[in-house]
């Protein structure tokens, strides 16, 4: 007998418990902003049936600058050759929302991110959550009484109740085609324990910014038509019957507070570092002359603020938000920690 029998295959090691191993690479690309111990304070909404002279109405002119590639899916996938001559060698491309060859960030996408941020830094109800109803903490159920609305529902609207601000689509300032890459991401896992505390929703989830999105590498994924770095978009946001504190809180959300600089996160690919945009408020148009406002659709040209006067006014509004304690200082600190920009954070490579 010789001793050259093949070595039996080594027994596979038993599977390790999948208990969220804490390694350098498995840090989460998001953080929860905890819900306050205090519950949303609901009150009668001011309404939009007429302009109220003691409240603020007008328009914010905004410029958005893409800092990490941003993709808002249109739901359409085309052959690269159908899109442009530059992409003719790419078999399939997911198409972004656009119009006349220019990319668009739909008003609804902007409203979504701005609303959820406003909710997180005010004492507002949990709207549009995927969590089970039973998991919503006491007092945080979505507003359903039109006579009593939380701070966010007052401004953004509630079921059957129109809000006080409206969003236009943001349109790219130039035609600048850019093809990126979107890996296959995990589906969101709303049942993950980390979202809950004693069986109740613990907070609202926000993704960190990253220096740049993950590269294609070896990952499975699909090419996407994206808004590339430094592409700018312009848009306008109309508001009516807001208090100074409400408009101030909106400006904090838009990153206009010099003590709380942050960028927004828009569109798909948030876990892998996509969708970072900074907002610049270029002009506020106010309609002080309400009589003319009813007679004339256009605001008179001399009724706007820009430059230093605008900066001063922004501070005044933000101060009002703090004075009236509309913005919750703890939640704002959390948001600043997550969304501060610029960042030194790397997108996690093995997230998906
Ligand atoms: Zn509400």
TrEMBL record:
One Pfam family, short name: RAMPs
BP GO terms, sorted: defense response to virus
Keyword Glycoprotein attributed: no
Keyword set, alphabetical order: Antiviral defense
Coiled coil location: none
Domain CRISPR type III-associated protein: 63-276
Superkingdom field: Bacteria
Biased composition (Pro residues): 1-18
Region (Disordered): 1-26
Identification of the protein by name: CRISPR-associated protein
Source organism: Merismopedia glauca CCAP 1448/3
Organismal lineage: Bacteria, Bacillati, Cyanobacteriota, Cyanophyceae, Synechococcales
């Amino acid at each position: 007998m010789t001793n050259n029998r093949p070595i039996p295959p080594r027994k596979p090691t038993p599977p390790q418990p999948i208990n969220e191993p804490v390694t350098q690479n498995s840090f989460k690309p998001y953080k929860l902003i905890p819900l306050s111990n205090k519950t949303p304070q609901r009150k009668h909404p001011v309404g939009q049936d007429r302009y109220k002279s003691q409240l603020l109405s007008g328009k914010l002119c905004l410029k958005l600058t893409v800092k990490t590639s941003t993709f808002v899916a249109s739901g359409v996938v085309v052959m690269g050759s159908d899109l442009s001559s530059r992409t003719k060698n790419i078999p399939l491309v997911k198409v972004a929302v656009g119009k006349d060859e220019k990319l668009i960030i739909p008003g609804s996408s902007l409203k979504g991110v701005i609303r959820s941020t406003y909710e997180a830094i005010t004492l507002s109800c949990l709207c549009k959550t995927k969590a089970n109803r039973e998991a919503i903490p006491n007092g945080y159920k979505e507003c359903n009484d039109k006579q009593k609305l939380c701070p966010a529902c007052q401004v953004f609207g509630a079921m059957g109740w129109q809000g006080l601000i409206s969003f236009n689509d943001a349109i790219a300032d130039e035609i600048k085609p850019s093809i990126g890459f979107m890996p296959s991401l995990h589906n969101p896992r709303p049942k993950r324990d980390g979202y809950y505390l004693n069986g109740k929703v613990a907070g609202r989830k926000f993704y960190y910014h990253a220096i740049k999105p993950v590269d294609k590498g070896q990952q499975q994924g699909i090419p996407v038509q994206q808004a590339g770095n430094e592409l700018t978009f312009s848009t306008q946001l109309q508001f009516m019957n807001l208090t100074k504190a409400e408009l101030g809180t909106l400006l904090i959300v838009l990153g206009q507070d010099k003590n709380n600089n942050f960028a927004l996160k828009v569109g798909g690919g948030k876990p892998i570092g996509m969708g970072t945009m900074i907002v610049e408020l270029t002009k506020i148009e106010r309609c002080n002359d309400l009589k003319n406002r009813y007679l004339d659709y256009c605001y008179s040209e001399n009724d706007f603020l820009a430059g230093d006067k605008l900066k001063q006014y922004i501070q005044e509004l933000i101060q009002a938000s703090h004075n009236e304690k509309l913005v919750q200082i703890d939640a704002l600190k959390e948001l600043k920690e997550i969304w501060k920009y610029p960042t030194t954070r790397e997108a996690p490579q093995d997230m998906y």
